[in-house]
Amino acid sequence: MATPAAASDWIRYWDEASSDYYYHRPATGETSWEQPDRWICGEGYESEDSARRSRAGSSLPLEDEDDVDAPEEDLFVVRASLSGPPPLPAGGPPPLSLGAPPPLPVAAAEPSSAQREERRRRVLGEILSTERTYVAALQTLEKVYMVPMRMVADAGAKVAIFSHADLDTVFLNLDVLLKLHARFLERLEQEEASGHFGAILSGAAKDIKGCYTRYISNYAQAEAHISALASKAPDKHRYLEVCKSHPDAGGLDVRSFLIQPIQRVPRYRLLLEELLAHTEPGHPDEADLREALARIREVAAFINEETRVLEKSLVRQGRAFVREGELTKVFLFSDLLVYGVPTGRGYVQKGQIPLGEGTRVERLPRTEHLTHGFAVVDGHGKGYTWHGESEAETGEWFEEVQRAVAILAMVARKTALEHFTAAKAGCTLIKFNHRDGRSSPRWVRISADGSAICWGDTKSKECKSMMALSKAVALMHGAKSAAFYRAQGAKKDRDWLCFSLLFRGRTLDFAATTAEGLFTWYLALAALVGPRSSEPILDEEALRARVAEMI
């Protein structure tokens, strides 16, 4: 028997346009596509049981009557009947303004722990596989382009296709990136079985920040240099085209390899975000992953924004960016310490501390309120106290600032005659074997008449070998020759202290043990070899600027 409609009941109507039912509540004027708890079909009350019975004689499939616990049962809504639309109350149906019928709700089941772990393992695998691909690409770049071009530049002849200046412009810091990522990949492979990548990623992000900032800052210049070769240096352009045909290059030109470090940091961020999304709360790796993601995001933000902002106000000839951190918000340059406070769009500079002119840096004793600190005292006696979050961080900052101050302070200006006299007197230099890159200390001096460079045992100070300087075809500053690349750590640790004399068929490669030694030897040799050098010769001001940039 039909039950009269109460004032709070809903009435079901048929919509021809959508071939679907909708519901209207006369008491409030509401309309809805969703089925209410109580509704009236025509003039009578229809329950879920009656709806079920109305389907029994229809052509619609009926759910299994025994399957009373089927979880999808509650998701079904009756959409049709054999008799067509229900009879309408007097006055016809109310106007329908609900838009298209909404899709049926689907219960979103939470993935199980096993499913999350499986997805997490897939992301870990992708991190490892893409890192292998990336390292392989950097190794191909080195093998196909960098090493052959370096060998050409090492020849030192004036007719050499490429100079070391070309290599510095195009491949700046790429050798450092390759070593960093080869070591990073090795650590990932060691932890492949455990799947605990968080600590490794977090530690690598710190190294990535410094290396990538320098590379990306130079990228536009490298691109412009390569683009100019086609019109200004067709022989160099043809050489690069020949390299592209190398079997290992896969037909990719040098630009295709140079762009990959630019693309890698955003990829790290996306992979870390996905990995964290599939890591269970409380997982042993969770905290490390969050820290790693925060650092990678900071790297991306730093590369995209802060470097651009800083360049507008802090660029000066010879000034090189060294370090950035959270002492307050501090940016360390080779001759300047800049500090500021954060704003919504970046940082506002609050002050600068010149690192020359008598500036000194001192460690502070540990106190109850200052556990990790040091002081920078400028040339006028004004002191600035800085503290870090940890002993390790504070120690790194102290050493970096102290090193910058020491370099500016220790190299007093000398005349050309003073440099030449010191080189004739001799000193200990680190000599690198041009065949295998092995190094050892040697006593080195210039002959009394300035015609030869001699070297021998450091104890006896007797010179057992010599080369005539008249046969030298170039002088280079920095660890650029093949001998330095064969030596482990020379490029990273001693780059700015290194210099090479190029002869036809070989090189003499040295590293000074002090900044003063570097200036003495480079400037003395520049006076003797410079006029016929196939590589650009730096005067004292240019050498100071270059050293400051490299440090």
UniProtKB/TrEMBL annotation:
What GO annotations for molecular function exist for this entry?
guanyl-nucleotide exchange factor activity
Q: Where is the composition biased (Acidic residues)?
A: 62-75
* A GO CC annotation given for this chain: cytoplasm
Q: Which residues form the DH domain?
A: 119-306
Query: Region (Disordered) spans which residues?
Result: 27-119
The record's InterPro entries line, in alphabetical order, gives:
DBL_dom_sf (IPR035899), DH_dom (IPR000219), FYVE_RhoGEF_PH (IPR051092), PH-like_dom_sf (IPR011993), PH_domain (IPR001849), WW_dom (IPR001202), WW_dom_sf (IPR036020)
Give residue ranges for domain WW. 4-38
List, alphabetically, the CDD domains matched: RhoGEF, WW
Query: Compositional bias (Pro residues) spans?
Result: 84-105
Q: Which Gene3D superfamilies match?
A: 2.20.70.10, Dbl homology (DH) domain (1.20.900.10), Pleckstrin-homology domain (PH domain)/Phosphotyrosine-binding domain (PTB) (2.30.29.30)
Name the chain's protein: DH domain-containing protein
Q: Which organism is it from?
A: Emiliania huxleyi (strain CCMP1516)
Organism ancestry: Eukaryota, Haptista, Haptophyta, Prymnesiophyceae, Isochrysidales
